[in-house]
Amino acid sequence: MSLPLLTSAPGKVIIFGEHSAVFNEPAIAASVASLRTYLFVTKAEDSDVIELDFPDISLDHKWHSAELSSISMAAMADSDKHSKELNAELNAALEPLLKPLHGSLQYHAAYCFLYLYFSLCGLRTGVKFTVKSSSPIGAGLGSSASIAVCLALATGKLGGHLNSAPERLTKQELDFVNKWSFIGEKCIHGTPSGIDNAVATYGNAVLFQRQANGETKSEQILDFPQVPMILTNTRIPRSTKVLVSGVKDLIVRQPEIAHPILKTMGQVASRGAKILANLNETNYADLCELIRINHGLLVALGVSHPGLEVIKALADSMSIGSTKLTGAGGGGCALTILNSNASPEDIAKFKDTLETKHSYKTYVTGLGGPGCAYMAKGQIQNHLDLIRPLFETNASVSELNDVLLPGKGPLQWIH
Ligand SMILES: Nc1ncnc2c1ncn2[C@@H]1O[C@H](COP(=O)(O)OP(=O)(O)OP(=O)(O)O)[C@@H](O)[C@H]1O
Ligand SMILES: C[C@@](O)(CCO)CC(=O)[O-]
Ligand SMILES: [Mg+2]
After folding, report:
1. Does the annotation mark 175 as catalytic?
2. Residue from 7, 233, 246, 238 nearest 116 by CA
3. Where is the GHMP kinase C-terminal domain (predicted)?
4. Which tens digits make up the pLDDT trace of 313-366?
5. How many CA atoms lie within 13 A of 191 on its CB side?
6. From the CA atom positions of the chain, what is the Rg in Å?
7. How many angstroms does the Cα of residue 208 sit away from the middle of ligand 3?
8. Exposed site from 192, 242, 317, 322, fewest CB < 10 Å?
9. Residues 162 and 255 in one domain
10. Whether residue 329 is found in the same domain as residue 374
11. ipTM (interface pTM)
């Protein structure tokens, strides 16, 4: 497919089962309708470069064609065989290109981009990739998966792998995006379960389970109930890669204790899935109880943070609802499922205290929106005056969503 190209993917909330999902236990996640990442691929001004502009993480880097000599055709051609494991030959070839970014936060984003780009598009130059996200980055809401999905869809299209139906993304194409975004997630954080990229690809909500042979099973939950909840971002930075490897270390040190915790978390997710499939006034309290238990188990794994405990303590002391961290923890976000009798005054007071006293950010957002999407070339060209400034200026999150949010903005997306 030719340029320009525009792709998008949502963030997610894990309701039950973060961390245990990495160890093949079931988990439930839903996409977040209003928190999305957008990728705009255009012709670079210089036809000799591949340019990456990721302003959200202050990364703007160009690779000139002369620097690409380490990338052998063999490494790229073989990459499809490596769709489950990273290709060691390609990794070695990327090293010199990534050297200037070593030790920085931007390294993993650039690694994900280069890996997918060379695997799916080859050595083509004269291309610029610009990413903007309306989702907080590194906060537990799946920003890494949404960028990996945007990149997998765009590089899949640009490389000619995803052009079977002009009017929609087919099941096979979505599976392709899911497979390659999982590889992208591997570049960003090592050993992902695959739940985040599955939700960002397919949208809605999923009951997900990684199998012992590395395959994944994800069951779409189409009518995910709109559970009343508040998402709170502590704005405390953390890295999923570091937190996941901390849990692995705990398992090595305390296997008899950690394994049963992970198993119990799987039980919580399975029970939670049954309740969510038939949520009603009678079992709502059970759902809240499972949220409380899941958080306690995550605390036992060592992935909470005093800043997250502030949210839980406030919700508990106001008897407003049940709180658990969501995503990898260690900072980032928590969700509070509101009690059915929580008053609007108490909800407002809860949010206000978190925002004014602790400088946290709260969100009230719908769950279960669309998955990845792209825009037809004609549509982009007809609205370049609306789209281009969003990627070339310091556009705010609301300006971004006003134009680009599927279903809200004036433009049509293809799903
Ligand atoms: N908009 C973006 N622009 C550039 N890089 C991004 C963007 N969003 C995410 N990333 C990459 O993803 C990394 C954050 O991923 P990480 O998995 O740690 O957090 P998360 O995905 O937001 O949370 P969780 O995995 O708990 O859901 C960033 O350091 C960066 O490398
Ligand atoms: C912590 C984790 O379970 C969820 C991160 O959103 C990691 C993963 O499943 O890849
Ligand atoms: Mg992530």
Report:
1. no
2. 7
3. 276-348
4. 999 999 999 999 999 999 999 999 999 999 999 999 999 999 999 999 999 988
5. 16
6. 21
7. 16
8. 317
9. no
10. no
11. 0.99
Same domain, 199 and 242: no
As a whole number of Å, the end-to-end CA separation of the chain is: 16
**Can you give the residue range of the structural domain that contains 379?**
5-222+368-404
User: Would the pTM of this model clear 0.90, i.e. be above it?
Assistant: yes
- 415 falls within a domain: no
Query: For 160, left (φ over 0), alpha (ψ -120 to 50), or beta?
Result: left
Phi, psi of 281 (to 5 degrees): -60, -35
| Nearest protein Cα to ligand 2, atom 1 | 328
Going by alpha carbons, the residue nearest to atom 26 of ligand 1 is 140
Does residue 411 form part of some domain? no
Do residues 200 and 372 make contact, with C-beta atoms less than 8 angstroms apart? Answer: yes
**Ligand 1 contact via 108 beta carbon (within 6 Å):** yes
Residue 61 token pair: 């880097």
Residues 389, 245 within the same domain: no
Q: Whose CA is nearest to atom 20 of ligand 1?
A: 138
Distance CA(220)–CA(71), nearest Å, equals: 38
> 53 with 15, same domain?
yes
The CA 136 to ligand 1 mean position distance, Å, reads 8
User: How many domains would you assign to the chain?
Assistant: 2
Cβ-contact 150, 38 below 8 angstroms? yes
